[in-house]
Automatic annotation (TrEMBL):
Coiled coil: none annotated. Pfam families: SH3BGR (PF04908). Gene3D superfamilies: Glutaredoxin (3.40.30.10). One of its GO terms (cellular component) is cytoplasm. The gene is sh3bgr. This is SH3 domain-binding glutamic acid-rich-like protein. Residues 116-143 are annotated as: Disordered.
Length: 176
């Protein structure tokens, strides 16, 4: 399977250039094999891309802008859907690829599989989840300590005020 990224080598839009660089850079960082197909210098590439982007994914003017991403003949999406997949740690799923062992996406898929098979519970599948539970417990203990200290402080403060009040009362009695 080859990922096809349709790009415009001579785009006048800096936004399009940045989006193209983001997609290509991310694919390279993940060591995913892909082919760059230039729609600016190759009319066949441009026509193929325009014809194969699904109608509901085309902008209102009907002309999809690069980058557009395909897995062979299957449309994956544009930059916005790629970015969402990147944020959700689901790029391999977005591209229709099997995530490599040890990746976050592979671990998430494994956890989902365990849930479906009934061999795991949601509480113990994700290290981040158990870490978050421990952090919440620590925060609750810290909050209890803070409330306890606050109570002690106010009791001490009240006691001091009472002593000051009593001293002022005695002082007033002595002066009058």
């Amino acid at each position: 399977m080859v990922i096809k990224v349709f790009l415009a080598s001579s785009s006048g839009s800096t936004a399009i250039k940045k989006k193209q660089q983001d997609v290509v850079g991310f694919l390279e960082a993940l060591k995913i094999d892909y082919a760059q197909l230039d729609i600016a210098s190759n009319e066949d590439n441009r026509m193929w891309m325009r014809e194969n982007v699904p109608g509901e994914k085309k902008p209102t003017n009907g002309i999809p802008l690069p980058p557009q991403i395909f897995n062979e003949e299957m449309y994956c999406g544009d930059y916005d859907t790629f970015f969402e997949a990147k944020e959700d740690n689901s790029v391999y799923e977005f591209l229709g690829l099997t995530p490599p062992p040890g990746s976050k996406e592979a671990q998430q898929a494994e956890n989902v599989q365990k849930l479906h098979n009934g061999s795991g519970t949601e509480e113990h599948l994700d290290d981040d989840t158990t870490r978050n539970v421990a952090e919440e417990e620590e925060q609750e203990e810290g909050e209890e300590d803070r409330v306890r200290l606050k109570s002690i402080f106010f009791c001490h403060l009240r006691s001091n005020f009472n002593n000051i009040g009593f001293s002022l009362y005695i002082l007033q009695e002595d002066l009058c």
